[in-house]
Design brief:
The protein has 85 residues and is mainly α. The chain contains 3 helices and no strands.
């Protein structure tokens, strides 16, 4: 039975965090692309670029799952996906 040192445990955990961050960044980039399709379609059909009631739903979902910091995270993600309003 092999016991990891504290340094090995930290290195392994950091490698997992880096892999998770890569996946999260990829998912956000994918979300940005899908959001662009929604915005372009909405605008081309005479709608507005931003749907505030939909954004409120998203903010609520993140807040419910992650607490108050979830709201800030959702705001940042929305800004990345739709730009500043």
């Amino acid at each position: 039975m092999t016991t990891l040192t504290a340094e090995q445990t930290i290195d392994d955990a950091r490698a997992r965090i880096d892999a998770l961050d890569d996946r999260i960044i990829g998912l956000i980039q994918e979300r940005m692309a899908v959001s662009t399709v929604v915005q372009e379609t909405r605008i081309s059909s005479g709608g507005r670029r931003v749907n505030l009631s939909r954004e409120m739903e998203i903010l609520g979902r993140y807040r419910e799952a992650l607490g108050k910091p979830g709201t800030a995270l959702a705001m940042t993600m929305l800004e990345l996906c739709r730009g500043r309003i």
